[in-house]
Write a structure and sequence with these properties.
The protein is mainly alpha-helical and 180 residues long. The chain is built from 8 helices and 2 strands.
């Protein structure tokens, strides 16, 4: 569909699982950071921890569950949504979330601290300082407040990931111009 100009090439950059990398860094969670530092499939690593089995014994179904939990918990997915997404009981979903936070306690502390900071300040910031006001964070409506809490955590993680990608694109562009 696309052909580069004569003397040019296409460049593809993959920011694989950048939001989980950002979460591992911001939560300073040893288990999550170790998976990335060791170059291990983070979803397989999570499954190994949650199901308390060796990495090599993780099935594709267990990895799928762990992947859903990795992304879902990061974005505030609760028991009801996890149960629905995985087609499991609420008690099983609760057990998975509890085990996740037991294994990745730094993630739970980060999520709680981010929510508390948003409630206190009325806003959150990305790692590079971009601010997002969250007016509904102290709403009397439990539904609005829960949505605002999810937005607070999402903004910090996704906003930081976006900041990193934009900075990387600017630096790549400058390097390409410099090298002709």
């Amino acid at each position: 569909a696309f052909i580069p100009k004569e003397g040019h090439r296409f460049l593809s950059a993959d920011y694989s699982q950048i939001e989980l990398v950002v979460l591992a860094h911001m939560a300073d969670d040893p288990g999550l950071k170790k998976a990335f530092q060791d170059g291990v499939d983070v979803h397989r690593s999570t499954a190994s921890l949650i199901f308390d089995i060796p990495l090599g014994e993780v099935s594709s179904d267990q990895r799928r569950i762990a992947k859903t939990i990795n992304f879902g918990v990061m974005y505030g997915m609760g028991t009801h949504s996890l149960a629905k997404d995985l087609n499991i009981s609420h008690s099983e979903a609760k057990q998975f979330i509890d085990q996740y936070f037991q294994r990745y306690s730094g993630v739970q502390a980060f999520v709680e601290a981010t929510r508390s900071r948003a409630e206190k300040d009325g806003y959150v910031t990305t790692l590079l300082g971009h601010v997002r006001t969250i007016t509904e964070i102290n709403s009397r409506s439990a539904v609005e407040r829960a949505k605002a809490q999810r937005i607070a955590v999402n903004t910090v993680i996704q906003g930081t990931a976006a900041d990193i990608m934009k900075l990387a694109m600017l630096r790549v562009s400058a390097a390409l111009k410099e090298k002709g």
